[in-house]
Amino acid sequence: MKQAVRVADAQEMVLSCVQPVGVEKVALLTALHRVTAEAVIAPRHIPLDDNSAMDGYAVRHVDVAGATRDQPATLTVLDILPAGKTPRHAIVPGTAVKIMTGAPLPVGADTVVQVEHTDGSDTRVQIYRAPRLGSNLRRRGEDIRTGDTVLETQTFLRPAELGVLASVGKAQVLVYQQPRVAILATGDEIIDPGEPDTQGKVLNSNSYTLAGQSAEVGGQPLLLGVAPDDRALLSALMASGLRADVLLTSGGVSVGTFDYVRDCLETFGFEARFWTVAVRPGSPATFGMVGRVPVFSLPGNPVASMVTFELFVRPALRKMTGHHDLFRPRVTALMQDEVDKRRGVRTLLRGILRQGDGTATVTTTGPQGSGILRSMSLANCLIDLPEDIEHVRPGTPVEVMLL
């Protein structure tokens, strides 16, 4: 049996082996939650011209200063100017242009009076209240100026960033490709949902949790189904999975009589980086490379499979999709339960984090067996207990990984 490696060392080994798959140009409508592979430079000012921030009247402030309802300023309306049209008239003393939101400011105007402070006339308007000089204007370039870097490379694209790209005229954007993640469950006892559920069989949840976790982080999951405990069939399915960018297997990596995953991997030239990790749950987690394809063989127990994905696969996929922040955020919280653990093994408990009144507290979700999948469904964090402690008392500060 190979010696178990520490979690931090295992993560370093994984990340040293993976790189982004490649880059591609995609349309904005398909770019949401992708990561930019280019810096985006603004080709023009936004707004391009001074324009109105209100429906109202473009005026010279000197013509309306001091206007009141009892003594309104009366101006001749030269034109009605909608957004998207070029002004045909300059503002001269005693005149105004009725202007819509977004329309360019006519020459000579320095203020817009909102329509609510006028009688709304299209010909000869009465101004009942004067705003401050320069009010209700959007100035040229106040949002973005020509030559500004509006998005850096490795920017995660949210809806706001898509709007910024559209506003500078980018119909397509260069992003990192999404790795294809082949997912293979193993074991004669495993059946897929919908198959006859007979005694001794176990429903395949791992493929679906791993597919969800992969998709959530930007991968493209490819479910290969369930491989029986048969070397030839397992090898055939592995060969198919190795045509993807990443291969995940679950189950069959322990030391049981029918745990064939290790043997089959080695027939493909698998170069192991580690065979087991000093962590609970999830110690029988294996990682290595077949050529340029990262291969993760995760434990069969559902919680152990999900936890080892969080620790090792998720950071790898984030690096492969171009992210620069690879790990989940962490906070410190006060433990509310009493917990015993084994010294020398890092332990991750499923937890419920509560924050309020400046204090963060965390409790476990209940029983922590590695087969209790509902503990992951209830959790919003993982309580990360380091190797060198054996006992945690209520009120002890602990580090939690936010899910």
The fold-level CATH name of the largest domain is Molybdenum Cofactor Biosythetic Enzyme, Chain A
pLDDT averaged residue by residue: 93
Q: How many helix segments?
A: 8
Unreliable segments of 5+ consecutive residues: none
Overall description:
With 403 residues, the chain is α/β, with parallel strands linked by helices. The protein is 19% helix and 31% strand. Strand 23 and strand 24 form a beta hairpin. Helix 4 packs parallel to helix 7 and helix 5 packs across helix 6. The chain is elongated and about 90 Å long. The two termini are 33 Å apart. 37% of the residues are buried. The mean pLDDT is 93.
In short:
The protein has 403 residues and is α/β, with parallel strands linked by helices. 19% of the residues lie in helices and 31% in strands.
